[in-house]
Amino acid sequence: MKETISTQQAAAFLAAHNNYLILTHVRPDGDTIGCGAGLCRALRQMGKTAYILENPEVTELFAGYVEGLTTGGDFVPETVVSVDIAARSLFPELAKPYLDRVDLAIDHHPSQEFFAAATCLDSGRAACGQLVLDIVKQLGPITPEMGEALYVALSTDCGCFQYSNTDAAAHRAAAELMESGFDPYPINRRHFRTKTFKRLKLEGMLTAGMELRDGGTTALVFLTRQMIDEVGASERDMDDVSAFVGQIEGVKNGVTLKETSDGHVKISLRTDPGDLNASEVCALLGGGGHAAAAGAMREGSMEAVRQAVIDAMEQVARKR
Questions:
Q1: Which residue, of 20, 75, 228, 316, has the fewest CB within 10 Å?
Q2: Residue of 16, 76, 18 whose CA lies nearest to 44
Q3: pLDDT beyond 90 at 320
Q4: Phi then psi for 210, rounded to 5 degrees?
Q5: What average pLDDT does this structure show over 62-71?
Q6: How far apart are CA 286 and CA 216, in angstroms?
Q7: What pTM value is reported for the model?
Q8: What residues are paired with 265 via a beta bridge?
Q9: Are 177 and 133 in contact (CB under 8 A)?
């Protein structure tokens, strides 16, 4: 029987088992990577055998945090743990054989599908990294390497503590992690102050093609394969590009539509707190997430997906 458990119960579970395989989600961000790295290091510190399943989509921006911690499909685990994965559709190809045998899911998304035997869920947390922190500090001391990984998880999901999910608990967790002894300056510079020249060119193109609606409070930007190819952009150049539109003064609802190489359009929606519920909108589009940040993937042309997003936003707005 599937159950929801506390961080204390999750820590007890991890202490009682061994031979861990940790799963991260498709298009991995800082939260899933940081959680995977922090948890893996904590388990190894206890003398457990633990690996993170290789995720081919990890960009160079995050690859260093999992260096030396990953394994391919050869390792046969006894215990499978997922971090920051809310839905079955978010399992990478290599992880799909474990869809029906996840022993523990650690997550903070209200759209969690409860696919695991046990789920440690708190949708009130700004980042899954906070949950992992609460768990691993019950298992042993937080080393600088663990602190760095979990700080990446927390800070990236909070947008360097600028997003609406940032609360006092997030700041306290960040301070606790910093006290482990790593230097936060290089992390903050890498993730929040530095952009590639190709990224700046893409932002110029997005601005030129931006669609403003609702008196300028809603903005849509369109990242096409032609734009990506013209600039020669990599995934590293496009990391967290969905945050860009929210920087525009007056915009409360920011939509980023990005064409993928396999004929889909990735939808990212960011909304102001108390305004449109992003999770409800993306649920209508086959996705999910948080009230202020959610996403979905749709097959079809950019124009068809654009209209589907607008229709979903209007449908949710009418219910308010």
A1: 75
A2: 18
A3: no
A4: -70, 140
A5: 97
A6: 27
A7: 0.88
A8: 259, 298
A9: yes
Quick one: average pLDDT of 21-48?
A: 97
Report the C-alpha gap between 180 and 185 in whole angstroms.
14
Nearest in space to 291 (alpha carbons), one of 154, 122, 109: 109
Q: How far apart are the first and last CA of the chain?
A: 36
Confidence tier at 239 by pLDDT (50, 70, 90): confident
d(CA 300, CA 320): 29
Record the tokens describing residue 45, joined without a space: 């510190």
Contacts for 6 with CB less than 8 Å, ≥ 6 apart: 120
Rounded to whole angstroms, the Cα distance separating 36 from 34 reads 5
The answer to whether the beta carbons of residues 20 and 86 sit under 8 Å apart is: no
Question: Are the C-beta atoms of 119 and 5 separated by less than 8 Å?
Answer: yes
Task: Return the pLDDT at 63.
Answer: 96
Q: In the structure encoding, which two tokens stand for residue 246, read together?
A: 């929210």
The Cα–Cα gap between 35 and 84 comes to 8
Residue 29: exposure state from Cβ atoms within 10 A (0-12, 13-18, ≥19): buried
Helix/strand/coil (H/E/C) assignment for every residue in the chain = CCEECCHHHHHHHHHHCCCEEEECCCCCCHHHHHHHHHHHHHHHHCCCCEEEECCCCCCHHHHHHHCCCEECCCCCCCEEEEECCCCHHHCCHHHHHHCCCCCEEEECCCCCCCCCCEEEECCCCCCHHHHHHHHHCCCCCCCHHHHHHHHHHHHHHCCCCCCCCCCHHHHHHHHHHHCCCCCHHHHHHHHHHCCCHHHHHHHHHHHHCCEEEHHHCEEEEEECHHHHHHHCCCCCCCCCHHHCHHHCCCCCEEEEEEECCCCEEEEEEEECCCCCCHHHHHHHCCCEECCCEEEEEEECCHHHHHHHHHHHHHHHHHCC
Q: Are strands 211-213 and 218-223 parallel, antiparallel or unpaired?
A: antiparallel
- Residue 147, φ and ψ in degrees, nearest 5: -60, -40
Rg (CA), the chain: 19
